[in-house]
Amino acid sequence: MPYDTNVPQPSEHPLRSVSLISRHHILRPALAAALTALGWQVSQQNSWQPADGGLHRAPVPHLVLVADEAGVLPDGPAGRPPVGTAYLAVGSRIRLAELIRAVTAGAAAAMDVDQPFTDLAARLHLMLLNPLSFEQSSQFAQRLDALRAAADRFSGLTSRERQVLVALVQGCTAAEIAHREHLSMPTVRSHIRSILAKLNSSSQLAALTLTYRACGLFEVVREMRELHHF
After folding, report:
1. Quick one: 10-151 is in which CATH superfamily?
2. Burial class (CB within 10 angstroms; exposed 0-12, middle 13-18, buried 19+) of 227
3. CA-CA distance, 71 to 99, in Å (whole number)?
4. In angstroms, rounded to a whole number, what is the distance separating the alpha carbons of residues 28 and 68?
5. What is the DSSP letter of 7?
6. What is the CATH number of domain 157-226?
7. pLDDT at 166
8. How much of the chain, in percent, has pLDDT values that exceed 90?
């Protein structure tokens, strides 16, 4: 669901309440600090505990489940939240099944933690300001299922094909891959053709686009994280 990337300043909105549920020792306090700076009243918990009868009794804070260092999401309430209340999950595409589990259990949407932190905090802020409707969250769940199907294509890559894909993500040419991996050019081209076939992609550009959107292979995601660093 597209959102306006112009992040409203704290003074433009009244103070709102959000609860961050996580055992992540770095990400949880970092997100709490960012949301506080954006005008949110933030509480932090290791696990979700229903209060005043649970999530479905008003008034309730917005709820965000954040995966721990191993990518595991904490349990949250079952079922959809009241209208106007955001229930979100933040985790890694490496553990896509965890995000799907959270959405299946009732979270309206999930966000990929493997993006620049400022982008993550800004998007989380906007999604809290504009909770998804039931119809929008249903559409998101369908897109997440499509993402899982796309991610499954990468499981068929051999270890050598994964190495070649990592090199393509790094921006290497076929000649550079051949030199670095001590392979012949025909062999490299053969690996690239095999990657395109397994990913059902018509070109290297299409394959890389799919990789950035859906790949959950650890070594590839690790390399994409490195691209955010100088």
Report:
1. Response regulator (3.40.50.2300)
2. exposed
3. 9
4. 9
5. P
6. 1.10.10.10
7. 92
8. 46
